[in-house]
Amino acid sequence: MILRMLLGVLLASNVAAELVAVEVHARDRNRTGALCELALPAFKGRTLNLRMKDGTRLPLQVDAQGRATFILPRLAKGKSVVLELETEAAPTKRQVLVTRQGRKLRMAFDGNVIAEYQAEAAELPRQEIKPVYRRGGYLHPVFTPKGKLVTDDFPLQHTHHHGIWFPWTKTVFEGRQPDFWNMGSGKAKVDFVKLDATWSGPVHGGFRARHRFEDLTVKPAKPVLEETWEVRVYAAPDSPNAGWIFDLTSTQTCAGPSPLLLPQYRYGGLGVRGNRAWDHAADNPTQYLTANGVSDRVAAHATRARWWYIGGTVDGTQAGVAILGHP
Predict the structure, then answer these.
(1) What would the pLDDT profile of 241-265 be if each residue is shown by its tens digit?
(2) Could you tell me which residues come within 8 angstroms of residue 252 by beta carbon, excluding any fewer than 6 positions away?
(3) Which residues pair with 183 in a beta bridge?
(4) Domain extent for 137
(5) Is the pLDDT of residue 56 over 70?
(6) CA distance 225 to 134
């Protein structure tokens, strides 16, 4: 996952009339593999083409809400480009394909697996792991475009870590303290509820799913939060240093009239577990970097930053994950 680029997108005609072209400005930096979005409510659910001056055609994917997305291969700093709209798009075999694989969803592009979403709870990988650590509703494995694994699941000594997942730690609910992070305590859990939608396309594929946070400190267990995930995975641009780009939107609402309180704590709500090859290895130390320029893990711990990176070497190749807050 890499930094998502947002460009200035101007329409060359009124979208209420027939759209003829789109003009994109690079502004103050060089752009490579940049995601561009615009509203095209008249073309909901369709795939179109944008044609560049040299004849190159870029897929333009419009979702059911009229949100249109395309990937611009490159644009130099200070330059602009005009893309002509073609409403009859030729089919393309290059798709972000989302398929059900047992208890998982697999997301792949050009035959390369990008990531898998664990829907229903996973089987335990080792006999010594207690059943309380089973859960669904998370992303793992996650790969780089070169096929290098950057997440882990059920790691040794941290069995409660699951790829990319949402676990609140310090909470107060109706005077009790359910803990969704330390699963071994048995005080709370997060369950997969339902898969609402999946889609595939030449620009992005993804899914919408529901999870439920439950307080286990009372009998019967009491629902605390209802969560919806919407995940979009974008096609990687043709670039030597390309990375997969994900949009993960988590929407959490109270399951009833009682609020969930989140007292100040050093952990946030999003967890990312990196490749186990980076675990305390003197010859392959984990690499950290935040938007504040901090690369020391201890110094960065419990601080705020607009983005952060974690990575290291996997099979002799540099790999990692960058998490960027929105906006």
Answers:
(1) 788 999 999 999 999 999 999 999 9
(2) 166, 213, 225, 226, 227
(3) none
(4) 96-270
(5) yes
(6) 19
- CA dihedral (122, 125, 131, 133) positive or negative: negative
Sequence-separated (6 or more) residues with CB below 8 Å from residue 52: 58, 81, 83
**Given this model, what pLDDT does residue 19 score?**
58
> Are 263 and 281 found together in one domain?
no
Span 112-159, pLDDT tens digits: 999 999 999 989 999 999 999 999 999 999 999 999 999 999 999 899
* Structural tokens at position 39: 């509203």
Let me know whether 216 and 110 are in one domain.
Answer: yes
Pairing, β 287-290 against β 271-272: unpaired
- Cβ proximity of 288 and 273 under 8 Å: no
Report the distance separating Cα 165 and Cα 271, nearest Å.
5
Angstrom distance (rounded) from CA 50 to CA 3: 23
* pLDDT in the model for residue 85: 93
CB 277 within 8 A of CB 314: yes
pTM: 0.91
Q: What is the CATH number of the domain that holds 52?
A: 2.60.40
Mean pLDDT across 22-31: 94
One domain for residues 210 and 234:
yes
- Contact assessment for residue 76 and residue 175, using Cβ atoms and an 8 Å cutoff: no
Type of residue at 21: A
Cis peptide before 327 (omega within 30 of 0): yes
Diameter of the chain measured on Cα atoms: 67
Give which of 247, 177, 242 is closest to 216, Cα–Cα. Answer: 177
- Residues 171 and 314 grouped into a single domain: no
Q: In terms of domains, do 207 and 258 share one?
A: yes
